[in-house]
Write the structure tokens for this entry.
Amino acid sequence: MNLSHSRSIRPLAIALCIAVSGCVHVLSPYDKMADKKLSTAAEALLDLQAETQLAPQPLVNSEALQARGVELRTGIRVARNMYEGSYGSSVNEGHRQLIVSTIDACDNAVRSFFEVLAREGSISDPATDLMLTNAHATCLTATERVQDGK
Amino acid sequence: MADLKDFKPQTVDEFLNGVESQISADLIGVWNTQKSRLERNLRILGETTIRVGALLATEQISAAEADAIVYQQEQLFNATLNHIASLPYIAAQTILNTIFKVVGWVIFNYSGVNLFPALVTP
């Protein structure tokens, strides 16, 4: 066995690992779960937007719609809570705050849409379009922050 | 600082120029170093502001709806400013107020609806 050869392999392997990990963010299971929850919320917002574009009338408040809002926001808050709990303490504080504030912006954007719908009784097509576009963009920004890793 | 009483931008670039004209001399240094990080948000905000003004003017959306749309943008902008660790809190708050004063004036000039009475005094 050529020892000098086997010794030379290890530093090379380590250097390669460092090079690869520098390029690819390794997400924890918590980050992956938060990413999934936020992506699901973003998709649900697009689905709702598509449905309202197809419907002939402005969106009218209903229990079913509000239940969809609650479901959507529950997913978003599960993602947020991950960074508030014990996992959050293992994440760089600046990055954790960045993630939490963006998830809050996503949650607020969704909440304000359903609040206007409930308060006004209905919501016009252009307002629906603008509000859901904004909420979708905000939730996508939140997924980007989560994907940045620790 | 340019007068905003007749400011009615037709394009996002005009909106961005309007915002820049309102940044005070003591913040222009901070603004110049940070504006590239804000540009994506500012463009979305400019587009939304012009659309909201036009939709309100033609009564296609209500004042309550317009208020909620602009509030969403404010939340997003706040979150973005919070991410800039090098930006002092006072500077961030002043920039936020300056930007939304422009937003308020644009919407008012388009529609006559004042969504920001604390920032817009016709």
User: Anything to note?
Assistant: DSSP finds four helices and no strands in chain B.
